[in-house]
Amino acid sequence: MISFDISQWRAWAPGLQTPDDWQAWASGAPLVPADGQAPDVSFLPAMQRRRLSYLARMAFSVGWPLAEGQAPMPLVFVSRHGETPRTFSILSELAEGQALSPTQFSLSVHNAVIGLWSIMRGETSEMTALAAAGDGFEQGLLEAAALLHEGAPAVLLIVAEEQPPEIYRPWVDDVPFAYAVGLRVTAGQQWQLSPQPATAHTPRTPLPHALSWLQASLAGAHSLTHTWKRRAWNWQRQP
Asked: For residue 129, how many C-alpha atoms fall within 13 Å in the half-sphere facing its CB?
């Protein structure tokens, strides 16, 4: 079991930018259809903004405000699928025999987001990019808890997923909409998280775990369980 506090959170999805938007969503308000909305990264110079993919923009939009005014802190970035649109574009160019862009390739790798974060913020703290399974949210929190145990005063955790190209949809069924969730994790006893084997009849958590946690947290829940295949994660919040 690990214990920690979540000092602050931010989240972004099309039509869901403010805490009030997310509170309404957690209370059952219908989602606003995606209309090409892009995350706001106007805090970056135009030259830097142009380098960011949609996935990176989501990650920066939730992470940057959590890091502003804070001491340098480690970053754990979690994305199960990563830069699927950029990767698909590169694969399509390969299939057509076209020359590949070194820049496009370098920005398609899974740790590109943390590399850009380090460069644009001048951040030299430890950073980790995880490509875990459907319970990557909890895997990221385990990594954050380990960093806290090693003495980090706070850890920034960002979970982000972009909707994949249509051709991937038969295999990628765990991204209901593009989203990013950012947490500033600190030492404490506010939340307790413990894994256990899942039973054969335990249903899979319907929402991505980061969104499921946010929904339950905003609804005031004090406990929840996330299940992914053979693993179940039990969450408890102190009253």
From this structure: 19
3-class DSSP state of 224: strand
Tell me the domains of the chain and their CATH numbers.
Answer: 6-30+38-188 (3.40.47.10)
Residues 77-104 have pLDDT tens digits of 999 988 888 877 877 877 888 877 777 7
C-alpha distances (whole Å) from 74 to each of 12, 48, 56, 150, 194 are: 21, 21, 17, 11, 23
Question: Which of these, 158, 155, 117, lies nearest to 136 by C-alpha position?
Answer: 158
User: Mean of the per-residue pLDDT values for the chain?
Assistant: 90
Pairing of β 2-12 and β 127-130: unpaired
Beta bridge partners of 182: 10, 158
